[in-house]
Write a structure and sequence with these properties.
The protein is mainly beta. It has 3 domains: 292 residues, no CATH class; 157 residues, no CATH class; 78 residues, no CATH class. The protein has a 19-stranded mixed sheet that branches. Strands 22-24-26-28-31-34-37 form a 7-stranded parallel sheet, with no helix packed on it. A 7-stranded parallel sheet has the order 23-25-27-30-33-36-39, with no helix packed on it.
């Protein structure tokens, strides 16, 4: 069974079709992504109320538009780069739209890049120039935030969870039911990404970064009216200074002056409605490959609960995000190169038995449909912003990271085994995990912690062999051939007897597999006999 977020969508005739990471030009000059479960509509005028419209699977409509870039220091805020109705709208095939000059003032400009996939919509503000420091506006650069604000119209009040990020700021994970907003990142971008216009751009996933210089973008939601919310994404200015070092300075212009302080969010959110006459998207004539600093947020297609049932093999061809996950013993989950499973509300595991998570090419477990030559893939299980939860009885194989905890405190990983993983357990961004009776075999790095996280306990090395014992009577081995060893089963002087005409002998029960072997034999008459010095051994192996 193929399971994933947004794999298919209903077409106009009510038939399911495979989703595509695709944005297309419309006859009215706009652009739209219509070939996925969540539809996205993009106006050529970024300053109107419905500049960006999302329609969910249940036909709930979300409308948003950017307001501008701010500096914030305590209760003071300065709008230093408002959104521009003159921004040039371009389609970057197959799944990106670009607004050049989306934010501008006094010689400073920044672009807005939106990437659509069947799983997510990512919004990236790209600074291609170094903005003036907050002290140019009378604010303290040590305590000031650089902040991007968006107005959201006609949206429900989200469920919020609060997580401290590495800078000390508090990020709010926002759950709208069918849309979920994890923590974003600020990072430099060289523009070196592939320019292949036939390949859909991939989104950066939560926790994807291994670069410690990438500060988190902390979100804050303010409900200012029944149908109006303001989403703010903030980063400490001092954390951005090293990342901005190589960008060109903002051009000096004669009209430079300190911006006035903004008094109310109602003034900020005001925008015109409807499409701008005469404006339309253009098809980009060249790849978009600037160098700059990116501030991003991601809206993830998620929500709902999912149960992985016993005896079923599930194929995770891409990222799967659910609010809550329930595992039944005997379920098999197989992930492809870009496949992973994430939950942001709860995870329920069986009290006994095992759940197997492994690579699609691992044919030892569940339905065999791969090459039989597995390799390290993505992260198997991502636990995001979940506290006080015990995950137990998982066997994770061939994962880049077996269990990945993000913003998740006071969790327990119990009675789990990890095989052939690059990293066993990783905790990041103020997560805490206790390991209880967990094992690993051939895991390159058993545990990793970062950004104020802790992992208590260890992964004991257990590659399956429980015991190995010599079973021939050593005293009898000193003599010549011992015919007493040639019986089926039973014991001889406290040692196990085996049928000597077999080189190996095995039996299995529900938990273990027992086998014996001998490396030499010789014949005596018509019946082969195991040599007394053949060093017969017994092994007990975990299933």
């Amino acid at each position: 069974m193929d399971v994933g977020s947004g794999l298919n969508y209903l077409d106009a005739n009510g038939n399911f079709q495979p989703s595509r990471d695709l944005i297309e030009l419309m006859q009215d000059g706009s652009a739209a992504a219509l070939r996925g479960p969540i539809k996205a509509y993009f106006s050529p005028d970024l300053s109107v109320d419905d500049a960006i419209t999302l329609v969910t699977i249940s036909n709930r409509v979300f409308q948003t538009h950017p307001i501008g870039q701010y500096y914030v220091d305590g209760d003071q805020s300065v709008l230093f780069a408002p959104v521009q109705d003159s921004a040039v709208a371009e389609l970057l095939p197959p799944n990106r739209v670009l607004y050049r000059g989306a934010f501008a003032a006094n010689g400073f400009e920044a672009d807005l890049l939106l990437t659509y996939t069947k799983q997510r919509l990512e919004s990236d503000v790209l600074l291609i120039q170094k903005p003036k420091s907050p002290d140019a506006f009378g604010l303290n650069p040590e305590t000031s935030l650089l902040q991007v604000r968006h107005a959201w119209l006609n949206v429900p009040v989200p469920k919020r969870s609060f997580n401290a990020v590495e800078s000390g700021l508090v990020d709010e994970t926002l759950d709208f039911g069918e849309l979920w907003f994890p923590t974003g990142k600020a990072f430099t971008w060289s523009g070196a990404e592939s320019a292949d216009t036939n390949a859909a751009a991939r989104l950066r996933l939560p926790g994807m970064s291994e670069d410690g210089r990438q500060p988190s973008v902390a979100k804050h939601w303010e409900q200012v009216a029944t149908n109006l919310g303001i989403l703010s994404e903030s980063v400490l200015w001092r954390d951005l200074v090293p990342l901005l070092a190589e960008l060109p300075e903002t051009a000096r212009k004669s009209e430079d002056s300190n911006n006035s302080l903004i008094a109310t969010v109602d003034q900020e959110a005001s925008a015109s409605t409807g499409r701008a006459t005469g404006k339309s998207f253009k098809l980009a004539q060249a790849p978009y490959r600037p160098s700059g600093l990116v501030l991003d947020y991601v809206a993830v297609v998620g929500g709902g609960n999912y149960t992985f049932t016993s005896g079923t093999t599930y194929y995770l061809s891409n990222g799967c995000t659910f609010a809550s996950i329930t595992f039944q013993a005997g379920a098999f989950l197989k992930y492809d190169t870009n496949g992973y499973l994430s939950a942001y509300s709860s995870v329920t595991c069986p009290a006994s038995g095992k759940v197997i998570m492994t690579a699609a090419d691992d044919n030892q477990y569940g339905q065999a449909f791969g090459s039989g030559n597995p390799k390290y893939y993505d992260r198997a299980l991502i636990v995001y912003s979940i506290a006080n939860t015990t995950i137990r009885n998982l066997q994770v194989r061939w994962a880049g990271v077996g269990a990945y905890y993000l913003y998740s405190a006071n969790n327990t990983l119990s009675d789990c085994s990890l095989f052939q993983c690059s990293t066993g357990v990783k905790a990041e961004y103020s997560s805490s995990v206790t390991l209880v009776n967990d094992t690993q075999c051939a895991v390159t790095t058993p545990t990793i912690t970062a950004s104020g996280s802790t992992i208590t306990g260890t992964l004991a090395v257990d590659c399956g062999v429980i015991s190995v014992a010599m079973v021939n009577d050593p005293n009898r081995d000193l003599s010549d051939l011992d015919t007493n060893k040639n019986g089926h089963g039973g014991t001889y002087n406290g040692y196990v007897n085996f049928c000597a005409d077999d080189y190996t002998w095995a039996v299995a029960d529900s938990n273990y597999f027992y086998f014996a072997w001998s490396d030499r034999s010789e014949s005596s008459g018509t019946a082969p006999n195991t040599r007394p010095d053949a060093d017969i051994k017994l092994a007990k192996v975990r299933q």
